Structures are given as C-alpha cells and as structure tokens.
Amino acid sequence: MPETQSFDSSFSSSRASSDELEEFRRRLMTLLSPYRGKVGFGNLRYEEREWGGDDGKVTSFAIVYETPGGSTNQITVTHGEDKGFALLNGDPPEETYFSSVDEVLKAVEEAVRQIPHRRIEKLKATVKQWVESGKSLHELLQEINRLVRSEFKGGSITHQELKMAIQYCIQLSSETRG
C-alpha cells in the first residue's frame, strides 16, 4: 500500500505543477494582451520554450520588447518542476524566485509597466550621446526623425516620446552652447 501512496503523491505533485504552469500561462496571456504589439511598449511579444534537464522539465517565457533605435530587451520567467518560478529582469539582470502564480504575475506586471520608462531613459541616453558627439541641433532632429520613420516597429518612437526627445535635444543643445 505505501508504494501506491508514494506513486499517487508523486503524480499529484507533478499534476499540481502542471496545473500551476497552465494557470500562469493563461493569466500571463491575459496580462500581456493590452500591451502586445504597441510601440510605446516596444512591440511587446512573447515566446515560450520548454526543455528537459537533470532537474526535470523547465519552461521559459520570454517577454521581448525593443527600446528606441531597435535594441532588444527581455523579461524572462522560468518555471521548473522542482524550483517553481524565477523572474530574470533588469539592467544588470537580477533573478528573483517566487512561490506562487500571483506573486510572479505581480512582478511581471510591474516589469511590463516599466517598459515606457525604460524606453524614455534609453532615448535620453541616445540623445545625450548624439549631443556629446558634437551633432548640431539640425542633425539631432534628423536623427530623431529617423526613429519616427523606423520600419522596425519596436525601435520607432511614439508621439509622446518624440515630443520629449525634441525638448531634450533643445535643452541639451542650449546647455552645451550656453
């Protein structure tokens, strides 16, 4: 009789992990839905991969987006049968472990909501680099115009980002000339 109990326990643990993973997958799709494909969120998209290892099956969810100019960034959630959920995010990347679907989804939502801020910071750093390289205001505005017209959806910029970039160009340009 103990062998059967052991088998059932192992089976239900694996089943619970599978149910948890399916719940995460379903809720992640719902969470990402309003942001997917939007320029302000870097043409956000998602990829899922699964592989087996010494520790059992691992599933990876890559939430991919671009910053202005086309630099690709990623928020990664992994789920291991033995280790639960882990989130890899940030610059430099930090790995955080979570014990529940609710906790990891809350962290993913916070990371996704930070994407517009990260895009603005990247845009400001790019503009500052252009100014420091000696570009004139006219050349700065030409560079920004290239970003607006970018065919690479996530690498282009929104109207709000455009407005901020122009204001920042003018500010930095006047500071370096003033």
**Rg on CA atoms, Å:** 22 Å
User: Total number of helical segments?
Assistant: 5
Shape: elongated
H/E series, N to C? HEEEEEHHHH
Give the tally of β-strands: 5
Main sheet properties: 5 strands, antiparallel
Helix content: 40-55%
Distance between the termini: 86 Å
Mean pLDDT value: 86
Unreliable runs: 1-13
Q: Strand portion, in percent? A: 15-25%
Structural class: alpha+beta
Q: Into how many domains do the coordinates divide?
A: 2
Trace the largest sheet across and list its strands.
1-2-3-4-5
Report on the architecture of this protein.
With 178 residues, this protein is α+β, with helices and mostly antiparallel strands. It has two domains: 2-115, no CATH class; 117-177. 52% of the residues lie in helices and 24% in strands. It has five helices and five strands; from the N terminus they run H-E-E-E-E-E-H-H-H-H. The protein has helices at residues 2-32, 101-113, 115-132, 137-148, 159-177; strands at residues 45-53, 56-67, 71-80, 84-89, 94-98. Strands 1-2-3-4-5 form a five-stranded antiparallel sheet. The longest helix is centred in the first third of the chain and has 31 residues, at 2-32.
Q: Would you kindly provide a brief summary of this structure?
A:
With 178 residues, the protein is an alpha+beta fold. It folds into 2 domains: 2-115, no CATH class; 117-177. It has 5 helices and 5 strands; from the N terminus they run H-E-E-E-E-E-H-H-H-H.
Summary tags:
178 residues, 52% helix, 5-stranded antiparallel beta sheet, 24% strand, alpha+beta, disordered N terminus, elongated, 5 helices, single chain
